[in-house]
Amino acid sequence: MFTKVRLALSKIGQRNYGKVGIIGVPFEKGQNKEGVAEGPDVIRAAGLVKELQALGLDVKDYGNVSYKTEPIPGVDNMIHLSEVAGCTSRVSEMVQQALNDDRTVVTLGGDHSVGIGTIDGHVKVHKDVAVLWVDAHADLNTNKTSDSGNVHGMPVALLTSELSDYWPHLPGMDWQQPMLSIRNIAYIGLRSVDQYERLVLEKFGITAFGMEDVERYGIHDTVHMALNKIDPDHSKSLHVSFDIDSLDPLEAPSTGTPVRGGLSLREGIHLMEEMYRTRRLNAVDLVELNPQIGDERSVQLTVEAAIHIIQAGVGYLRRGLKVPKGITDMPLQTFR
């Protein structure tokens, strides 16, 4: 079907649906479960690029991030800090490159520590950025409050300027300055928040919608209430950092820290559709898919969910692609 539509479109001038840059970050040192580093290549192998090209998108795959690590002094209760520093620094550089190439960046994780690099790169290019952090968890811990020392539970605290005083000096992270205001971040999907994180959310008045809020207001209104808080003038460059564990485990079981009672896939897709409709969504992270967790069917469900989320973020509409002007005059036999 897609082939026939593209042939028909070529007769009247194919519509330009935009440019996308894919960056793979096969990184799992921000937590302690093996397998999440396989996420990028598993999503690609399921046909992500072809699916996006079928939407009429100009897709460039920048490949997987490679990085070097330098020996650095350790920091209490931050596991693999040298690895995190080396990887996220390179991620930031690649995101900057893709954005400067005028592409919407789709970053495939890897664990959620990669968000340190993706958001840093986005802010360095577009300056005024608002972030929707879609996650079961707040990822607001510091090395002093984390129970595990896993950095994938710390990226929001590392990125935001208001929380910079809560950190010691972090060797190897001098490239990253917390330039993002906490007022420019909103959460959707929270349902597993540590006591310290709850204190920070309340102390700083952070915009946060838990699953009870989604149930109360519905996903459509929740998304727009979040945007009105973090981008009231509708002028900021938008970034969605989407942890697959924001979805209910029945929808996406192959992830490292599942929490029951999450978003449905339909709600996740609608969230991304609404973000795309702003025409200011310039970066999407899809993280924490772990193909080593669960059986073959579980992995397939999770990968399919990830692709649906990404497609919605770059322009796929469930009612079908908009028909270009002039095509309605063509005979229906063209599409058979």
Tell me what the structure shows.
With about 325 residues, the protein is α/β, with parallel strands linked by helices. The chain has a single domain, classed as 3-Layer(aba) Sandwich (Arginase, Chain A), CATH 3.40.800.10. The protein contains eleven helices and eight strands. The protein has helices at about 1-10, 40-45, 50-55, 80-100, 115-125, 155-160, 195-205, 210-215, 220-230, 265-275, 295-315, and strands at about 20-25, 60-65, 105-110, 130-135, 185-190, 205-210, 235-245, 280-285. Strands 2-1-3-8-7-4-5-6 form an eight-stranded parallel sheet, with helices on both faces. Strand 5 (about 185-190), helix 7 and strand 6 form a beta-alpha-beta unit. Helix 8 crosses helix 9 (about 220-230) and helix 10 runs parallel beside helix 11 (about 295-315). The longest helix is centred in the first third of the chain and has 20 residues, at about 80-100. The model is unreliable at about 1-15 (pLDDT under 50).
Q: CATH superfamily assignment?
A: Ureohydrolase domain
From the N-terminal CA to the C-terminal CA, the straight-line distance is: 8 Å
Total DSSP helices: 11
| Number of beta strands | 8
User: What share of residues is helical?
Assistant: 25-40%
| CATH topology heading | Arginase, Chain A
Major sheet details: 8 strands, parallel
User: What's the helix-strand series?
Assistant: HEHHEHEHEHEHEHHEHEH
Biggest sheet, strands in spatial order?
2-1-3-8-7-4-5-6
Low-confidence stretches: 1-17
Rg, nearest Å: 20 Å
Task: Briefly note the structural class of the backbone.
Answer: alpha/beta
User: Total domains, how many?
Assistant: 1
CATH C-level label:
Alpha Beta
**Overall average residue pLDDT:** 92
Sum up the overall morphology in one term. globular
Proportion of strand residues:
5-15%
The CATH level-2 architecture is identified as: 3-Layer(aba) Sandwich
